[in-house]
Automatic annotation (TrEMBL):
GO terms for molecular function: oxidoreductase activity. It comes from the Eukaryota. InterPro entries: NAD(P)-bd_dom_sf, SDR_fam, VLCFA-Steroid_DH. Keywords: Oxidoreductase. Pfam families: adh_short. This is Uncharacterized protein. CDD domains: 17beta-HSD1_like_SDR_c (cd05356). Belongs to the short-chain dehydrogenases/reductases (SDR) family. SUPFAM superfamilies: NAD(P)-binding Rossmann-fold domains. Signal peptide: none annotated.
Length: 299
């Protein structure tokens, strides 16, 4: 699967086909936009910040001048009827053949579950689960009528092997994997492919990790992923991530333990950074007091 060519999705869907990508302004979502534009698909970019979307839109227009683009600045954590009505209105003239549910929310730091702020838990549930259901249902209805379409859901390896100190995030991504797998069987007969695309860490702003063998760049992740687009139900694109998955399948408790130790190491680094920051703040406060005492000297 790592040496086969990418499937010809443009041939499958024909001309004037659109691909809608959520979380399109950064990281993997941005890479999805550029890659599908290179395939010849028109692109609908969805994310919260209009200025970031327009920047990616300009990049696509410059590199692929024949590709049509639309931007929808929408906070998908607000999964109301108003949100879906607006998206339907924005795309009414576009035949969306490919939906990529890429947007995700993660904890800002590794922490004990009890110390996770409730608003962060709610955000992860809304973005990683509820909007995933809403967006998928919205586009599946139209794909069923055409008897053709692809839905790609960006999952996470943490949802398969567990991740202490990221309990809510890991659990919501586990839902994404199960949801994708379950409905993929339901819509085979309608000619619709539903995939769960499952990486572990990828070097993005969200992960804040440097590239390595186990942490691919967004480009190398996409290079591996495109070869499996529209094929298998569950995809672990990178060989290094496939290796982690294989090892975890041999002994789940071992993978949990490794995940735990990794989390502990990251927690230790985070605690060291907090300690250094507190020390600097204390030193700065001392310097300020010393400076004030030098200024306001009385005889």
């Amino acid at each position: 699967m790592y040496i086969r060519p990418a499937p010809n999705l443009r041939k499958r869907f024909g001309p004037d086909s659109w691909c809608l990508i959520t979380g399109a302004s950064d990281g993997i979502g941005k890479e999805f936009c550029h890659r599908f534009a290179s395939f010849g698909f028109n692109i609908i970019l969805v994310s919260r910040t209009l200025s970031k979307l327009q920047k990616v839109q300009d990049e696509i227009k410059e590199k692929y001048p024949n590709i049509k683009t639309k931007v929808i600045a929408q906070d998908l954590s607000d999964y109301s009827t108003k949100m879906t009505d607006r998206i339907e209105e924005e795309i009414k003239d576009a035949r969306v053949d490919i939906l990529i549910n890429n947007v995700g929310a993660c904890s800002r730091k590794l922490t004990l579950y009890i110390d996770t702020k409730l608003r962060d838990d709610k955000l992860m549930i809304n973005v990683n689960m509820k909007q995933l259901i809403v967006m998928t249902k919205l586009f599946l209805k139209k794909m069923m009528k055409r008897k053709n379409g692809i839905v790609m859901n960006l999952c996470s390896g943490s949802g398969g092997v567990g991740c202490p100190y990221l309990a809510t995030y890991s659990s919501t991504k586990g839902f994404c994997m199960l949801f994708s797998n379950n409905i993929s069987y339901e819509y085979d007969e309608y000619g619709i492919t539903i995939q769960g695309i499952t990486p572990f860490y990828v070097s993005t702003k969200m992960s804040n990790m440097k590239p390595s063998f186990f942490v691919p760049t967004t480009k190398s992740f996409m290079d591996a992923a495109v070869k499996q687009f529209g094929s298998e139900r569950n995809v672990w694109p990178n060989f290094s991530h496939k290796l982690i998955k294989f090892l975890s399948s041999l002994h789940l408790s071992y993978s949990m333990e490794k995940s735990y130790l990794t989390s502990q190491g990251l927690l230790k680094k985070a605690e060291e950074r907090r300690t250094k920051r507190a020390k600097r703040m204390k030193q700065d406060h001392w310097r300020l007091e010393r400076g004030l005492s030098d200024i306001f000297q009385f005889d």
